[in-house]
Amino acid sequence: MFAISVIKLLRDPAGTYTAFWLAFSLLLLLNTTVNLFFFRKPRASIIPNDQLPFISVLVPARNEEQNIEPCIRSLLAQNYPNFEVVALDDNSEDATYDLLCRMRDQDYRLRVLVGAQLPDGWCGKPHACWQMANAASGEYLLLTDADCIFSPDALLFAVGAQRQSDSDVISLMPDYVAVTFLEKLLIPLLVVIPMAFLPFALIRGTSLPAFSAANGAFIFMSRHDYFDIDGHRATKHELTEDIKLAQLAKRRGKTLSYLDGRNVYRVRM
After folding, report:
1. Residue 11 pLDDT more than 70?
2. pTM, full prediction
3. For residue 105, with 0-12 CB atoms within 10 Å meaning exposed, 13-18 middle and 19 or more buried, which class applies?
């Protein structure tokens, strides 16, 4: 009787439409449920201090006078023994550069670069990141943005996430801060859409670039792997350079994990 009812339903155009959306909704529900088991918060690394790698945190900044100081100070307050912060002022027209220089004079771990003129064929952020990566001293690189605020253990979480997932590239979804009514209406979609539509198990579980996810505010990888895939020079013309970088890493044989970083850093979009 059930099979007969289904056949009758599918013969009716309205019934076919209903059946399609019912199946689609059930598929999204199933994918979201499965994702809850793979979208985990990373654990902070507990290895001895002398075994922790030296990390360079790369912060591109253009007209970020409202955000740059809280971001940099949260990075300089890291509970981590071996790191540097490399910030690049990308021809800002506000007080961004002055603020960076003031903080640099207070803490030797901060290095401030002045961005070169944008070459033909490059977008701004990839060019800034490429310059910083070439100037960085770290064994590992953390690529981030100037509007992020980090927890004191963010770098320990980055190292822990890489070891926990056994992945070459780690990207974390932030804790999205929503203040205005419109932000509270729209920002949750940045979490709901990937949770519903992207199978997180296949990000780490397959080498297919189609199953890639990354947030440009937190991409962590070794310096060797970054230059092995030609880093941001290979994505120089991309506006969504984070996703393209993740896809490129998979094409070059690197493993990728996308995890829940709400205990690691926050950002107001």
Report:
1. no
2. 0.90
3. exposed
Rounded Cα distance between 155 and 54, Å, is: 10
Q: With bands split at pLDDT 50, 70 and 90, how would you rate the model's confidence at 8? A: low
Q: C-alpha 212: how far from its chain's center?
A: 11
Q: What letters, b where the CB count within 10 A reaches 16 and e where it falls short, cover 129-143?
A: bbbbbeebebebbbb
Q: Give the pair of three-digit tokens for residue 119.
A: 């070459």
CB 260: neighbour CB atoms within 10 A? 18
Query: Strand 256-260 and strand 169-173: pairing?
Result: parallel
Cα 190 to Cα 123, 130, 150: the distances in Å are 23, 27, 19
- Three-point CA angle 141, 147, 152, nearest 5°: 60
pLDDT band at 259 (very low <50, low <70, confident <90, very high): very high
**Please, which pLDDT band fits residue 266 given cuts at 50, 70 and 90?**
very high
Closest by alpha carbon to 125, among 90, 168, 149, 99? 90
Confirm or reject CATH 3.90.550.10 for domain 49-267, answering yes or no: yes
Which residue spans of the chain are classified as CATH 3.90.550.10?
49-267
